[in-house]
Fold these 4 entries.
Entry 1:
Amino acid sequence: MESKIVIVHSDKRVRKALEVLCSVHHEPIAVRDVKAGLKMILKISPALAVVGLDSQKKEALQLLRYMKSYGSVVPVIVVAGRGAGALQMQAMKAGAKGFLEYPVDQSRIDREISRVLQTSLDVTDSIPPITEEEANTNRTEMERTLNRRMKCHVGKNQVYLRSLIIGLTKTKPRITLKCALRADFNMQSQIYYEYIRDVCCNDPSACPAVQQFAAKNSA
């Protein structure tokens, strides 16, 4: 199942570019303004929202305030335009869970989406739905490929296929990694395909556990 992502951006060209990037692994729904964005978020409760931030209009900050007033817990990644990078601290204080400066490439947006989605899963201690990519691929070969691509030293040869028994039914095997480092920092130790693909096998420095480990050992 692909995650639904609402994209809110006033610039048609940027909005389309973000929609194309997000459509590789997710199901994006793009709208052009805060009002339409809030309406869509409240209507479908997407997995995540990607919201543009202009240094003059500051529409992302406005949407975050509205979402808070309506009690929405949908995580938001802010994408800052030219001159808006200085507003990162303000955006994070307003409730944003991720922050990128435009332009962004496929790797950066995939990594940030997977990181933010995993952070939400950590809070609820839940398992993400199986992705279409995972469901429609030879998972044994996928497991081998991810182990070959692994960049995080903690995850070396740790990707495996895991099934769960729920009631009397055994679930289909899932791409899984049990991360000892995340467990050390009181995070959910079991992580799944998207996070493994975009963070562990792409840029481990984006992982909060790796960041906390680095900070602890540099103190």
Entry 2:
Amino acid sequence: MQAIRAIFDGNEIKPIEAITTKKKTEVLVIFPNNENKFSPEEARKNLRGLGRGERLTEKLLKSRAEDIRFEKRQ
């Protein structure tokens, strides 16, 4: 699967990144919801504190350790 950015001008979708395939391919076009667009700073501020009590750091470290063990086996 490849994801690229493009511009829709009201009639056509014009890629602004390279497309690696030349064959005829089915694509999925997603239009972002501009109503809820946040800057990265606003997004971080809105997310801050939402995972309290869920031990997310421990879960992340455990998951990363499992990834490292899996990568060493290959």
Entry 3:
Amino acid sequence: MGDGVDKKISISVWGCCVSRDSLAYRQDKYFIPRFVQSISPYSVMSGRKIECNIGDFAEYPQISNFFKRNICLDANKNAVEYLTQEKSDWLLLDVSEVRRYILECSEADILLTESSALHTVLPALKNYYGEVNFIVRKSYELDESILLSRVSDLCCRFLNFYNSERIILNEFAGVNDYMDDDGTIKSFGNGNLSETSLTNKLIKKANKVCELVLKGCKVIRMPPNNFAVAGHKWGLAPLHYTDLYYDYVEKCISAIVQSSDKNLLDEQLGILYELYNQKMYCARIEAVNVISGNKIKELNKKCVLLDQSISNLLAQKEELERRERELKDEISALEKHRLGLEGEIAKLKEQNAEILTKAEMLAQQNTGLETRLTVQKLKLQEEQAEKKAVQKELSDIRASHSYKLGRAATYLPRKLRDALKRK
């Protein structure tokens, strides 16, 4: 190693990104010879061994060599050997990967830690395993005693390469809430909370096993006020914490690697634990204040809108009152008009009664006239009949021969008489 590396503290890491990221805060101070991630003790400490290598996954360039290597270390069951091939001053260990699901084929004695990278490259492992059917087993559905036994076996393997006092056990677990981009604290969904609760129980038991087997190891405990952040570089998840947490772990590691007095170190770790727990608590309070401030702003906006609504309602009330007065005046006028109409109706009723009386009288008179007219009509008809009979009789007489002779006999004497009168 170069001079720059020689001045750094070498710490190999077994666990997940949480421990690795805690050292990344001080790259000028720490050198990481080896880092093993995404491997559960349940799979790496048991099952069939093969001899695959990164080259087997060449057709998957979207998967980094780091994850390809971890898949090989898990499948080959040689992760501990790889980690310890390059000596380091310290081992930073966390057992959070016990939370991971397992791909299992019991007939072929195959155990692999599940990951998205593994699912991508799995077809390439057919050259070693052949056509097999895997089942996915959730971590909290595994035989717990077997899982914890393999955690114990893993710790025993580490003791072959590191004194327990040179092992730093980083204890942490999934958190239930996170700080959103707007600075407010929010809870993970019920599904995540349930999963986190189940896996946290496993992690807690695995840590107890580690403390028992690695007696004398240095332990860094997670402050209870820790929380995740939505803007984490690896994305939002219950293990992707606030920067305060990584700063805290680095401060603890710094105290551990520099301390020679156990009692003093315990006191320093205790102080850091309380200090950062308070910092995280204050961050939460600030988030609550942000929420309160936002609520106050929202309430102020609502008050402004409410004031506007009240003003509008008052204006509407005045308009309604004005309209009510107008309607009352209209009703009063209509009432007077109604009374006048009722008086006119009463008069009309009286006139109508008089008209009806007169009409009855006229009807009676009309009936009498009609009767008289009928009688006169009958008499007239009789007279006309008689007249017709007389006329007919006269016509018959005039048409008779005797009448004509009589007329001639009387004609000459009348003429002579008339002539004598004129003389």
Entry 4:
Amino acid sequence: MKWLHNLLKCFSFSAVLFTFQACYGDDPGYDYFDEIRFIVTDESGKCIPDVDVHLRTSLTDKWSYIGTTNIKGTTAGSDIYSECDSLWFKFTPKDYYQEKDTVVKYSGPAKYVIKLNKK
């Protein structure tokens, strides 16, 4: 262990920190991504299953598929890059409800309730 101590003495403190950062890095999973969830209901508050949810962020122009609502009308959590300022969502039901688009001003992890109207 003394040899490691002598080896590290010949480097500056910042060089040692840089080496540890380069080898081990930091975990971006907690700092850069947040989770967003949706509950999709009709006008009366009844949950709607089988609604496809798509996302487009301010960082990209492409729509990406997030998931389909389950029997309780909820989507699984989706990781959102925390540098986004606006999020565009498209809800496409497989039933007799109207498709809905909405824009969310992004402010961190959240759960949103989306109400769909009948055709």
